């Protein structure tokens, strides 16, 4: 039997559906972000990254790099194994204390990634609540969806950010335990959940709340606690989940909440128990990033100003910017093949890297380019981006917003 043919057939299906993904070979340059080197088939080329989730450029911040180098030099690289076997190294303890403080919670628990913290956190919490019903937002991230599935309990999906539909489901659920899971900021559309209203419903109908702040921690709130901190509802949410791999420029995921909830997950979650802990150097770097962003607002303020400028420039040129109140700038394409072509043309002809967002990340027919400005994208780079996009749109015969063009 030719087993390899099964895998080739699967790959062929992706090619036929225009969903096969190609990763650009990029080498970031510390101190020069968003500039990078693209190792293209024709050799090295300088490019500008316009789609990084290192939203604030903290991956190159001297405090963060310095903390990583100092810790690795002092204690070595690896963690030595799982925390059950090797113990918990001190930089990890410090990081969990810093995260609990960031969110105003009693405790936090660190995982190897944001995906794992959602998948393991949601499934473990739900399994520990008898007869629980999970109520999940329709646009939740795949990590949350898989966590809900892994819980193997009753679940219902409420329409995206639709609190009226959520209330209907809560009423129908009656007195049984209920767990509401949603994101605070949805990264593909850039919209924000009505957290205060969701908390109102949770309190009214006796539900527990779990909120993913992955794309908001470090970015919003006076100390970078996320949308929940910005909106004054952090204390009303039972479990907050976040990542260290985006605004904090490092690696890892976590949950924060009441001590007994966190301890129960620590004690029961296979995705935590049987996985090697994050290395000390990573933990020290993340702690340095969190501490810096708790007191420095320059990065957040500059970031919001840059995102607003990108939206204004692209809208003025008639490019189809999808509505967003946050730092996410989605540019609608609506065709998987043209979305990939646009990305390739921007990289090869203009030295601009923006990855195409196709199905299954977004629904078919809503393909887009997802632009994420940083504090370090200067005016000249924004102008170059707009000019390049206009040329690509013309070459691919993609529609422009005529209303914006007429206004100009």
Provide a compact summary of the structure.
The chain is of the alpha/beta class. It has helices at 3-16, 62-75, 83-86, 90-102, 114-127, 142-151, 163-173, 195-205, 227-230, 259-268, 270-273, 280-295, 298-316, 336-350, 379-395, 402-407; strands at 26-28, 35-40, 43-49, 107-111, 133-137, 154-158, 178-183, 207-212, 239-243, 253-257, 329-332, 352-353, 356-357, 368-371. It has a seven-stranded mixed beta sheet with strand order 4-10-9-8-7-5-6, sandwiched between helices.
How many β-strand runs? 14
The neighbouring-strand order within the major sheet is 4-10-9-8-7-5-6
Structural class designation: alpha/beta
Overall pLDDT score: 96
Q: C-alpha Rg, in Å?
A: 22 Å
Strand content: 15-25%
Helix/strand order: HEEEHHHEHEHEHEHEHEEHHHHEHEEEHH
Helix content: 40-55%
Helical stretch count? 16
Distance from first to last alpha carbon: 64 Å
- Uncertain segments are 404-408
Major sheet description: 7 strands, mixed
Using the alpha-carbon principal axes, give the shape. Answer: globular
Describe the structure.
45% of the residues lie in helices and 16% in strands. It has 408 residues and is α/β, with parallel strands linked by helices. The strands form 3 sheets. Strands 4-10-9-8-7-5-6 form a 7-stranded mixed sheet, with helices on both faces. Strands 1-2-3-12 form a 4-stranded mixed sheet. The chain has a 3-stranded antiparallel sheet with strand order 11-14-13. α2 runs antiparallel to α12, α5 runs parallel beside α6 and α7 runs parallel beside α8. The termini are far apart. The C terminus is likely disordered.
């Amino acid at each position: 039997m030719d087993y390899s043919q099964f895998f080739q057939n699967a790959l062929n299906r992706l090619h036929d559906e225009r969903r096969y993904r190609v990763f650009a070979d990029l080498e970031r340059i510390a101190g020069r972000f968003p500039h990078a080197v693209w190792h293209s088939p024709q050799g090295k080329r300088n490019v500008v990254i316009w789609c990084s989730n290192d939203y604030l450029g903290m991956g190159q911040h001297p405090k963060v790099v310095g903390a990583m180098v100092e810790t690795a030099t002092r204690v070595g690289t690896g963690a030595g194994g799982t925390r059950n076997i090797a113990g918990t190294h001190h930089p990890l303890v410090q990081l969990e204390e810093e995260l609990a403080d960031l969110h105003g919670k009693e405790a936090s628990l660190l995982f190897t990634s944001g995906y794992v913290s959602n998948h393991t956190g949601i499934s473990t919490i739900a399994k520990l609540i008898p007869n629980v019903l999970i109520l999940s937002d329709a646009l939740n991230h795949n990590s949350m969806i898989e966590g809900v599935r892994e819980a193997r309990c009753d679940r219902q999906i409420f329409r995206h950010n639709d609190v009226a539909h959520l209330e209907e489901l809560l009423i129908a659920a009656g007195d049984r335990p209920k767990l509401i899971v949603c994101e605070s900021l949805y990264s593909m559309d850039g919209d924000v959940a009505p957290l205060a209203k969701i908390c109102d419903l949770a309190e009214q109908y006796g539900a527990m709340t779990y909120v993913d702040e992955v794309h908001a921690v470090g970015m919003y709130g006076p100390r970078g606690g996320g949308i929940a901190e910005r909106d004054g509802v952090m204390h009303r949410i039972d479990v907050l989940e976040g990542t260290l791999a985006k605004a904090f420029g490092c690696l890892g995921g976590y949950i924060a909440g009441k001590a007994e909830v966190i301890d129960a997950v620590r004690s029961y979650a296979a995705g935590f128990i049987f996985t090697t802990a994050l290395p000390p150097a990573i933990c020290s770097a993340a702690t340095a990033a969190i501490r810096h962003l708790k007191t420095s607002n320059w990065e957040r303020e500059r970031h919001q100003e840059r995102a607003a400028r990108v939206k204004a420039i692209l809208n003025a040129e008639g490019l189809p910017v999808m509505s967003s109140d946050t730092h996410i700038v989605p540019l609608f394409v609506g065709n998987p093949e043209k979305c990939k072509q646009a990305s390739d043309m921007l990289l090869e002809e203009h030295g601009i890297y923006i990855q195409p967002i196709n199905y299954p990340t977004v629904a078919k027919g809503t393909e887009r380019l997802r632009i994420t400005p940083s504090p370090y994208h200067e005016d000249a780079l924004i102008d170059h981006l707009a000019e390049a996009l206009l040329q690509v749109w013309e070459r691919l015969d993609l529609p422009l917003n005529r209303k914006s063009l007429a206004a100009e």
